[in-house]
Amino acid sequence: xxxxxxxxxxxxxxxxxxxxxxxxxxxxxxxxxxxxxxxxxxxxxxxxxxxxxxxxxxxxxxxxxxxxxxxxxxxxxxxxxxxxxxxxxxxxxxxxxxxxxxxxxxxxxxxxxxxxxxxxxxxxxxxxxxxxxxxxxxxxxxxxxxxxxxxxxxxxxxxxxxxxxxxxxxxxxxxxxxxxxxxxxxxxxxxxxxxxxxxxxxxxxxxxxxxxxxxxxxxxxxxxxxxxxxxxxxxxxxxxxxxxxxxxxxxxxxxxxxxxxxxxxxxxxxxxxxxxxxxxxxxxxxxxxxxxxxxxxxxxxxxxxxxxxxxxxxxxxxxxxxxxxxxxxxxxxxxxxxxxxxxxxxxxxxxxxxxxxxxxxxxxxxxxxxxxxxxxxxxxxxxxxxxxxxxxxxxxxxxxxxxxxxxxxxxxxxxxxxxxxxxxxxxxxxxxxxxxxxxxxxxxxxxxxxxxxxxxxxxxxxxxxxxxxxxxxxxxxxxxxxxxxxxxxxxxxxxxxxxxxxxxxxxxxxxxxxxxxxxxxxxxxxxxxxxxxxxxxxxxxxxxxxxxxxxxxxxxxxxxxx
Length: 562
Known about the structure:
Blueprint: H1 2-12, H2 15-23, H3 49-59, H4 65-74, H5 76-85, H6 92-95, H7 106-119, H8 123-133, H9 149-162, H10 167-175, H11 178-183, H12 203-210, H13 239-248, E1 252-253, E2 276-277, E3 287-288, E4 294-295, H14 301-314, H15 318-330, H16 337-348, H17 358-367, H18 369-377, E5 384-385, H19 388-398, E6 401-402, H20 413-417, H21 438-444, H22 456-471, E7 474-475, E8 491-493, H23 498-503, H24 505-517, H25 523-535, H26 541-553, H27 556-559, E9 560-561
Parallel strand pairs: 7-8
Antiparallel strand pairs: 1-2, 3-4, 5-9, 6-8
């Protein structure tokens, strides 16, 4: 399919068009004519359309013209407060009607995810849940979870629910989730028993520190690495610490499990209810953690868990470790240390004495001066690669996904994007927050995490997706006029764009530039697209528009959110 599409594209869109788009540069070097919308950088000023589009592409599953206009009308802070107040849109209710079907598998979970990403009103919460799913990773590529899409969706709903709550509550909810318990083998973890050669499993103990809370090395509050007297990084934990936490995480099993049914897990298998403690299998010995934290002997499983999670939550690394990752996933891959420290300080204290208030943290990182003006003050280092799957959600949000199918049938997004929600190959997510292609790292020291999944094959597949589901699956007018056997496929509806395109081709291209890139294409690039639009006079208007959409979404300017 990739070869067929690439060959066909050479006829429809000459390579020179794409190369000229690339050579037209970015918004920092717009040509002599004025941009469509001027940038107003001051945080207190009314937000303009270009900056509204930028913000929506950072914080939602893709800007739409309607949302851009609404954000301009009410401004940043009001939009944020509205988003915080919207009732969470959960995924499990969308899956349950299909759970008794013989073909119940991942496509129904993926359909629910796309449904929420495209249509849910709580866009910021949904994006935050997606961000958290790439930090608190579980994956369906597990024998148990892979057979129960509803259980995986239930875990995702946990992230949706806790997205703007307290980090300590989120940490405990994740720890006691049966999905996490299965994925990182805490569920059924037993106290030591030398007669049976049993030692507590260390999997969750290691990852809860390395990935979910404190990281591998001690950090300053601005995210920089602390060094010892020899100039070497200082480790946050060692094997003894892992062992101590492993003994903490013993004695937990499926909800409803008792001492008598501990080994008969099939009697109690509950992939949805919170795990419960069975004291007979919990290690009650004294446990040494880190920084002098010592859990006394003879505590219950609940007491040990509470003290251990409190110790992790209050570790000084957590604030900069999590703050930097949230900034990277929403705003820019290379935040300044000052930016990280400002957000870490909000994590430490939300202004009312509360530590770990995620709502306050998200609000602060969005309204920070660097988030609003970084593309102006640091044009060479500010921004981030757009995750491939977000190209799909943006296409379908901006251009009205339409289908007669009962679900959004997109069962294997991994093929097109090298990623799919809660389907990574390991607990380390699809890409690491510190990843950088060697050439970039050696030349600049910058990181570009999302480029870890930007293989040649993946980039080709994503481009083909935009062509197939955008350019060749676009219509205008009455959807019922499409051949009946094709209506269950996925289409974009360009009906509302056709009148503007027919009256003023340049204006429709400028509008597409605004929606898709936040108005960063240069005037030269716009001129080029207008000329190309004119060369397509043989094609229906909606096909001419879809060709322009493909070119913009395939450009490097679109691939980087700035």
